[in-house]
Specification:
The structure holds 3 protein chains of 3 kinds. By secondary structure, chain A is mainly α. Chain A contains 12 helices and no strands. Chain A is elongated and about 75 Å long. Chain B is about 35% helix and about 20% strand. The two termini of chain B are about 30 Å apart. By secondary structure, chain C is an alpha/beta fold. Chain C folds into 3 domains: about 150 residues, 3-Layer(aba) Sandwich (Rossmann fold); about 70 residues, no CATH class; about 90 residues, no CATH class. In chain C, the strands form 2 sheets. An 8-stranded mixed beta sheet of chain C has the order 6-7-8-3-9-10-12-11, sandwiched between helices. In chain C, helix 3 crosses helix 4 and helix 4 packs across helix 5. Classes of the chains: A mainly alpha, B alpha/beta, C alpha/beta. Chains in contact: A-C, B-C. At the B-C interface, helix 8, helix 9, helix 10 and helix 11 of B face helix 5, helix 6, helix 7 and helix 9 of C.
Chain lengths: ~280, ~325, ~325
């Protein structure tokens, strides 16, 4: 018999998981750079300097400059901040609404079919098309991009939560709590949702990655947050006309997206493995 | 010659090499039903898998011998086992659903065995399968050949498994808790069927169960397993009338009776030790009412108390060390 | 004999839900018109094979699932008509212990939290007071107070079952439904739990509804026994009388099917073929298709529970007429 608390036990197993450690390290580094852009960015990301147009990467401009002479490194640092902000907000909105919708559908069988059919209908649209429609109708802004991406990612998240709730609510300890007189809310929070946390956290790391990618796509087609504020997608979009003579404009923000998505996917895989009860020997 | 002869068998599991089975010595004579009784963690299911050479990947043979008609199987290797499994050995499980293929009709699965193992033609196999279904008392046998496993009750599925064992003409049937998942009336039918088959075919059986009632119904001889070691082996009547190991006695008196006065049950304190926490001495010592200091020194070996009745306990012999016997 | 629980015409029909658009679905009558009374301080054993509806009955009695029809009175009050608040209050007096000692405890809560939750729900005591009560209750089930800060996975099956019993005892109920409480335990541990339940009954004046498929265990603990078959009670009576001379043909088959207690008695009886999945007669006695004593009337009219001269109740025309052959001596 060991009496280590499950929380400390979980922390130890997370640190020992290679995917989690590498993914976590990458995301932490990206996050740090984005947050410290105000101090670390060598140039103003918005300032034009026509004499320095289309400079290749070098000592002064590590990532080169674009056709307005703006420093790509600085733009990527600020752009990452917007991308992470959008990703983070989507995770919060999707996490909250997806959990509520999934929990209600899973817990109250009367509401299950209507809610889930609605979610299925939403899922039937390709999410990027859905996001573009929302963006087109509401106008392009950070908030609207978050709304659009949340609508696109909620159905799948709700479905995952619902599935976990359906499993968790069948445990005898749920019935025991009911026998003790516990109300629905108490049962839902203390006994059911806590056991859905694993799949939900894993799903949300993927939502984060999806949001960063989708934001880039939206910006690329002009449905993202409006210029001049740089986002990783809009930097790439602006660079596409110079792909031949100044590939660095698109390569560096592209690599940043790659690092973010890779890091988040590794993080998600690590969490999935560690949170799986079968992984505890 | 004994059908199956196991001598000092040891099976270890995992990287740590924990002993799931230790110093297990057993014989099954032709036509005999050997009952293996044990609680969870006794290693009884691992024993069945070891005899079939179906040990899970983490487990391995670590010592001792296992002979079939005198042939040392562990030395002979996997190919020899495979031949035995197809010809001489058959096994039925607690949950037959897992052993039947859900997408094939049950009749076809029995026919398959007849075609492959006994070289029958399709037509002959079909007729033989129907005869086997009648033999295991499946009602409307001809129609049931076309049923899928999920269309049958647990009892009927177990009958199909028994029909398959008969199809191979197996000489030893290993039955691992075959009636545990069944209702009591169905259990009684299946036990009766197995008794009839044994009488008619002379098949040996290794009957593994946690239920002493099933042992009383089926076994000729009994081996009591506790925490990976044999605690006692004896003819079935001696187990019930004059058990010598304190564990066997405690087990017998812990079971509620279905007749006579209802007295307070004698319970055994504590619980079966976990695999990584087996005591170094006698495995039962920490829960034993008759424990002495000598019990903790080393695990007592199985010794004959009377002819055919062996006990792994220092108490019945009245000597302190099991090395200087009577 | 004062009555603690009175059940009349209890029925539960499970509707298999069809699709949102196409409807459909099938209904199962899991419990079909059950009448029962449980006296204060007794243990009523409820036995039956799979599909008999015994576990559903146990949950209906506590209104953990809503009955389709029938009334349940607990200490004279109609549980079925209670408001949510009244039902919550009533839950303090009636509790349940489950079969699976692994699935019945929330793996993410400490034993202290699991036990104290009962008091938290009913707003009783300060956190310190709750923990003290939890320790007291652990003592009742013979577990040390050091168990409080541990998690369920650190305990053996028998210890977990004690924790499950302690949780049921936290509110000091008068009535406990024991649903297959020893079925998942080893024989050596099973005896400990049975003895504990009997000790607690004596110490705390508890009343049990003891549901099990294990007839020997039920006989051992029960004052009276009710036998269920396909949603109905076919026989109910004092435990010893019912075992000594079962009146209903199904009870007879059930007892005859018990494995021998000694090898000398092996194979004494061989029940007729068929199992609880066997086709069931529509309209008449549910057991008629399997019954070796069935007459034409058994297939036409469903017999009701009627009282025999010895006070036992049985739902069988021929048992009431006394026209059944004497029960064969049992193995």
């Amino acid at each position: 018999m060991t009496s280590a608390s499950p929380v400390r036990d979980l922390g130890l197993r997370l640190l020992r998981n290679r995917s989690f450690a590498v993914g976590g390290g990458l995301i932490f580094a990206v996050l740090l750079i984005a947050l410290t852009a105000d101090w670390l960015a060598p140039f103003d990301p918005l300032r034009n300097a026509f004499r320095m147009r289309l400079q290749p990467p070098g000592a002064a401009h590590w990532f080169g400059t674009d056709h307005y002479g703006r420093d790509i490194l600085s733009r990527v640092m600020y752009g990452t901040r917007i991308s992470l902000l959008i990703g983070g907000l989507v995770v919060v909105v999707t996490g909250a609404l997806g959990t509520v919708i999934g929990a209600v559908a899973g817990f109250y069988s009367r509401l299950d079919a209507p809610i889930m059919r609605l979610m299925d209908a939403t899922m039937a649209f390709p999410s990027i098309v859905l996001a573009m429609i929302v963006s087109a109708v509401l106008g392009a802004s950070v908030v609207n991009v978050v709304v659009a991406l949340s609508i696109a990612t909620i159905p799948h998240t709700a479905r995952i939560v619902r599935a976990s709730v359906l499993v968790a609510r069948e445990h005898d300890y749920v019935e025991a709590a009911r026998a003790l007189g516990a109300g629905d809310l108490r049962i839902l929070f203390r006994h059911v949702l806590i056991n859905c946390l694993g799949p939900l956290i894993v799903r949300l790391t993927y939502v984060f990655a999806i949001a960063i990618l989708a934001e880039a796509t939206l910006s690329f087609v002009g449905a993202g947050p409006p210029p001049p504020a740089p986002s990783l997608g809009s930097i790439i979009a602006q660079g596409r006309d110079f792909m031949r003579e100044a590939a660095w404009i698109t390569i560096f923000p592209g690599l940043t997206i790659l690092v973010c998505v890779l890091g988040l996917n590794l993080l998600g895989d690590g969490l999935r493995d560690v949170l799986d009860p079968r992984s505890r020997s | 010659m004994a059908t199956l002869e196991i001598d000092a068998l040891e099976v270890r599991i995992g990287a740590a090499g924990l002993k799931v089975l230790e110093d297990v010595t057993l014989r099954v004579e032709p036509g005999e039903v050997l009952g293996i009784v044990g609680e969870s963690g006794s290693g009884k299911s691992m024993l069945a898998l070891a005899i079939m050479e179906l040990l899970p990947g983490v487990a391995r043979y670590a010592g001792g011998t296992l002979r079939w008609d005198g042939e040392d199987m562990i030395a002979a290797g996997p190919d020899a086992w495979r031949k035995r499994r197809g010809r001489d050995l058959a096994m039925i499980f607690q949950e037959p659903m897992t052993a039947l293929n859900p997408v094939h009709r049950v009749g076809r699965q029995v026919e398959e065995v007849l075609v492959r193992r006994r070289g029958m033609s399709r037509d002959a196999a079909r007729r033989e399968a129907q005869a086997l279904f009648q033999r295991v008392e499946i009602p409307r046998a001809a129609a049931m050949l076309d049923a899928y496993p999920h269309e049958m009750s647990g009892g009927m599925r177990q009958r199909v498994m028994i029909a398959m064992a008969l199809a191979t003409h197996a000489r030893l049937l290993i039955a691992d808790e075959p009636t545990t998942a069944l209702d009591v009336t169905v259990q009684s039918q299946i036990l009766g069927l197995l008794r009839d088959l044994r009488r008619d075919t002379g098949m040996s059986m290794l009957f593994i169960t946690h239920d002493l009632g099933v042992i009383a119904e089926m076994a000729d001889r009994v081996a009591v397993l506790y925490a990976g070691r044999v605690a006692e082996t004896a003819p079935v009547r001696e187990i019930f009338d004059s058990a010598r190991h304190p564990y066997t006695r405690a087990l017998l008196s812990a079971i509620p009776k279905t007749s006579g006065p209802r007295e307070r049950l004698a319970s055994i304190p504590g619980s079966v030790p976990a695999l990584d926490a087996f005591p170094t001495g006698c495995r039962f010592a920490p829960r034993c009412a008759m424990r002495r200091d000598a019990c903790d020194a080393r695990a007592p070996r199985l010794r004959d108390a009377t002819a055919g009745h062996a006990v792994a306990c220092i108490e019945p012999f009245g000597y302190v060390s099991d090395e200087d016997g009577p | 004999m004062s009555r603690l629980v009175e059940i009349e015409g209890l029925t539960k029909i499970f509707e298999r839900r069809g699709s949102l658009f196409f409807g459909g679905g099938r209904a199962t009558r899991a419990v079909d018109g059950v009448d029962l009374t449980i006296a204060k301080g007794e243990t009523l054993g409820l036995v039956g094979e799979s599909g008999s509806g015994k576990s559903t009955t146990g949950r209906l009695v506590l209104r953990l699932i809503e009955p389709t029809a029938g009334t349940i009175r607990f200490e004279g009050e109609d549980i079925g008509r209670m408001s949510r608040a009244a039902l919550r209050a009533a839950r303090q007096r009636m509790q349940i212990v489950f079969q699976d000692p692994y699935g019945s405890l929330n793996p993410r809560m400490t034993v202290a939290d699991i036990l104290a939750e009962a008091l938290t729900i009913h707003g009783e005591g300060s956190p310190a007071e709750r923990k003290r009560r939890a320790a007291e209750t652990l003592d009742l089930v013979r577990l040390p107070a050091s168990a409080l800060d541990r998690y369920p996975h650190e305990f053996s099956g028998g210890q977990r079952q004690r924790i499950g019993i302690a949780r049921a005892l936290m509110l000091r109920p008068s009535f406990i439904v024991c649903d297959e409480v020893v079925s998942a335990l080893d024989v050596s541990v099973q005896a400990q739990i049975i003895n504990l339940l009997q000790d607690l009954q004596r110490e705390l004046g508890l009343t049990y509804l003891f549901i099990s498929h294990n007839l020997a265990v039920v006989r051992h603990v029960s004052t009276r026994i009710a036998v269920m078959y396909f949603g109905r009670i076919v026989e109910i009576g004092a435990a010893d009388a019912l075992f000594a001379a079962p009146a209903h043909p199904y009870t007879r088959d059930l007892l005859a099917a018990l494995p021998a207690e000694h090898p000398d008695m092996r194979g004494a009886h061989r029940p007729p073929p068929g199992d609880s999945f066997a086709p069931r007669t529509e309209g008449g006695c549910r057991f008629a298709a399997r019954c070796r004593y069935a007459e034409p009337r058994c297939g036409a009219i469903e017999p009701k529970l009627e009282t025999l001269p010895d006070g036992r109740e049985v739902a069988c025309f021929r048992a009431i007429d006394n026209s059944l052959p004497a029960a064969g001596e049992r193995a």
